Amino acid sequence: MSDKLFQLLPLVFILPLIGFVLLAFVRGRISENVAAVIGVGSVGLSALLTLLIGMQFMSHPPAGGAYTELLWNWMNAGGFAPKLALRLDALSLVMMSVVTGVGFMIHLSASWYMRGDEGYARFFSYMNLFIASMLFLVLGDNLLFLYLGWEGVGLTSYLLIGFWYKDVENGLAARKAFVVTRVGDTLMTIGLFMLFHALGTLNIQDLMQQAQTVWPQGSTELTVATFLLLGGAVGKSAQLPLQTWLPDAMAGPTPVSALIHAATMVTAGVYLIARTHVLFELSPLTLECVGWVGGLTLLLAGFTALTQTDIKKILAYSTMSQIGYMFLALGVGAWQPAIFHLMTHAFFKALLFLAAGSVILSVHHEQDIFKMGGLRKQLPLTFWCFLTGSLALVAFPGTAGFFSKDEILFEAYANGHATLYYMGLFGAFLTGIYTFRLIFIAFFGEPQAKVHVPHGIDHSLPLLVLAALSLLGGLIHLPLDSVLPEAHISAAMQQMERPLQLASVAVSLAGIAIAWFLFHRNRALAASIKASAVGSLLFRYWRSAWGFDWLYDLLFVRPYKWLAQINRDDVIDVIVGGIPVAFHRMNAFLSATQNGQLRWYAGAMGIGACLVIAVVVFL
Amino acid sequence: MILVWLILLPFIGGLLCWLGERVMGIKFPRWVALLTMLLSLGLSIMLWMQGDYSLAQIGTSHPQWVVEYQVAWIPRFGISFHLGLDGLSLLLVVLTNLLGVMAVVCSWREISDKVGFFHLNLLWNLGGVVGVFLALDLFLFFFLWEMMLVPMYFLIALWGHNTPGGKGRIHAAMKFFIYTQASGLVMLVAILGLVFANYASSGVITFDYNDLLKAHLSPQLSYLLMLGFFVAFAVKMPVLGFHSWLPDAHSQAPTAGSVDLAGILLKTAAYGMLRYLLPLFPQASASFAPVAMWLGVAGIIYAAIMAYAQTDMKRLVAYTSISHMGFVMIGIFAGTQMALQGVVVQMIAHGISAAGLFILCGEIYERLHTRDMRKMGGLWSRFPYLPPIMLFFCVASLGLPGLGNFVGEFLILMGSFKVATAVTIAATAGMVLSVVYALILVQRALHGVPNAETHPVSDLSKRELVMMLSLMAILAWVGLFPQTILNTSNAAMHNVQQIYQSAQAHSGAGTP
Amino acid sequence: MEHGLLLAAALFSLGLLGVMVRRNIIFVLMCIEIMMNSAALAFIVAGSRWQQADGQIMFTLIITLAAAEASIGLALVLQLHKRFRTLDLDAAAEMKG
After folding, report:
1. Predicted interface score ipTM higher than 0.90
2. Cβ of A175 and B439 within 8 Å?
3. CA A466 to CA A348: how far, in whole Å?
4. In this complex, how many residue pairs, one in chain A and one in chain B, have their CB atoms less than 8 Å apart?
5. What's the pLDDT at A1?
């Protein structure tokens, strides 16, 4: 019985794939309702299937804690024989549930959000393709298969960011996202080459076993290889130094931001590192760097979020910062909390984005929070959902975010990474400020815009479900012990847990209080701080996201464009083209002597005769 | 005998097209050409189905051929009409015939002038290419190598476009011809040199491939002769520095010509390297390998930057071809089994994806009468089917996993990594740049607001749709089930690798 | 001996100069005659120096040649005049490369 159900595993991604093919081929010849049924239904079915498989997995776990299904042998060339195989273990089950479950909610919400758009069917075809690729990514048993999904989600992310293709800006943002992540992917590819040549396989489980026997702790080769993998993860998860694409990615429709750029794809980097955790544990230097990348990103993103005015960009920077927490968790060896935070983050960030989408539609595609205001009374449902999400985001006690973030900070402290702990703590403080800055400005104060109140079950249901998950998701216990190592915390440290919790609660409450004071009670003060010399300088600097875009533009984009521009006519072609030009010149010179005038010929003959005689006589 | 038919069929078909046009009208040549190519395709696929291409060739320096045909031609000089088929040539013959069918189909409406003569040239060119893939006699090889150029010259010169700003189709055709002809002559000299060197050492004049494999050459001579072959193949490939005929030829050629050029003609160079360069001069190639590989890397990057700067769609695609063939170059000279297998897949995948893009360029030109991307924009909302198909081929060309090009590139790089780490790492930069140029194509042509002065345009017809969908299906098949191809070419590549590897170990070159 | 050869050389140079600078075709023809005669003179001088008959044979040959040349040349002059209505040599410079 158990195996029978597991054998349905491929169906989980085949269903969205069928949805994609159907929607791609009808090309807008069907009504919106049919498209929505196909698009949402396929993901819904695969979510249902995931639920069944998950229940089966929990009640009758397969032998060894993992079930592997071989699809077919992909290729076999010169000793390189990757298989297309699916692997279901606790980690991929968690990811699969998040992808299909949250994905389904977002699809449902999107069927409301996108109504009336001319590319309705196209939108859902991309979304379905995304879900399928994401499932390849999390189910792949092999790093190459994982890479297939990895690039697939990159492509769909590109397509969806540039979904409204008529605006050139969107296309640019989409391209930027693809190119920047591709830089990371390329590093990762080189990492794959290294791993294969050292260990002779790309199967993840075999890799992790072999690595322990082949490499000693902290070997240079492994460190380089893991650094390259980290490059891939950093690109996909928008961490330092490849973080610049995420804010621009907000050009896509809001459900896309919720699904791809908050809940699932951007956490793929975290998943990758967790999946190959043995490799990272063997190279402490890389692991340390993972933590620092996370810590720095979460601060950088936190400061930047403080200065943004676009509701989606604030959320984008907060996503960046939350993924920073996950990286920090990975870096300090808190594997399970990292995945736990990944899940809760998916819940509350999806909720926040969907609620933001609802707000944006209600105020007629206005995204500037300063042009909103007073929405609390006008959009009560959205407000309460947004507030729930925000509370989870700032880790208010009792919410899902509290449990996961708290575990991360606690393990960071317990494993002796004090600096990272304080960075995380300060990040929590920033989170409190920027989140409630958004709430106080957008939802409190005087109403500024006419509001169109959204309704309908496809609007409300996803919000309510996700709000419930954001509140209660912390109670879920993830069965990750079979895949990821448990934390070993000394008894002395156990004592510290309560005080640390209190500290982080106090810090985030302080953040909220400051936000309340500056952005609700006394906005003039905030304005005057911003106007002061230091304030405005910092504000401008943070607002430009610490100048990374500027720097990369200067270092890479402009030289490249310049090079392409000056060389448009292909310098090699010009050089080679010089040969016929030289021939033409010579021809012109010689034909000039053929002037048809007798005297020149006679003269030439005379000179020639003289020369010949001279040669004969003198030589 | 079946091999002779593979070559003869297109020649006869072409002649029929030409002669038949006067009597039977303009439609006749099209159908005859289509039927001929379908027949050839069927024949080659039949060969594929029947033959056993996994013949073990280990231990013998004398390669074995699945099908072989030999009759004396000019016995006095040891020249014979010698054809042979192994997995590598079979795959390329199938590709040639497949793209031949596509080339005929895609010029169905484009060519309306001198239709019979057009198909004569097209088919003779295809026949010549098939011959190049089958020839096992160096004289015959050279003969067919030149044979395929002349019809191509006419294709470009007579049915080409005169794009504004370009130097005209005659110029392009001339450039193409001079480049390839001149480099071909260098190869002829090298062939003669090889034959005479062999005569000097063994006392037998022969042009036969199998015999020349055993020729004993001094290292210096071998290096010189290798360079002679290399120049001819480098021009055809094209390698950076020898490439400047390609963008011109492509931008002026008719669609069928471009399909033919990018899809097939470029592959003859890679085939030549695999069949002649490495096995005949293993030592010399091994010591030349670092130069060749860095040329490949330079080609990848240079062409990618060039592609980014283009405004003519076809020129852009032409430069991407140069970039992709850089990977082939690296793979060939890395010479590991994995890299060589990757080369085979890459050749096939690139043949199909480039053909697809060129056909799309042709279709867009037929409808909009421009290939200038600055004048396009917003095609997405003007056609229902064309843009997604275009997106598919762009994505294939940037190497998305699941499609053929990825398998090729990945195997090449993976296989080369151990042999030439620095080269491989530099070449992976091409993976980033390929995204840049593929997406700029999508961005400029498909995205954006449609032009104001748009006239209604018709979408792809059934003929075009069937053509594109079959190409897409093949590309996805190559990407997901490359094993069928890999199995076919495995023995042939293993043979090359055996010969080359011992030389690599000998010369000590190629180690990072 | 030297004087004879010097005279021949001077005559030849004058003829060549004339061919190069004169525009009128009649003068050009005359200058060519002068050059031929200078060559003939050189032969005579050489013949008398070495007491050989060859010099005189060559002289006869050159005279014959000159006569033939003059008749063909004059015929060409007539044709030229008929076609271009001038005797200016540069007007016939049609074979410009």
Report:
1. no
2. yes
3. 7
4. 136
5. 46
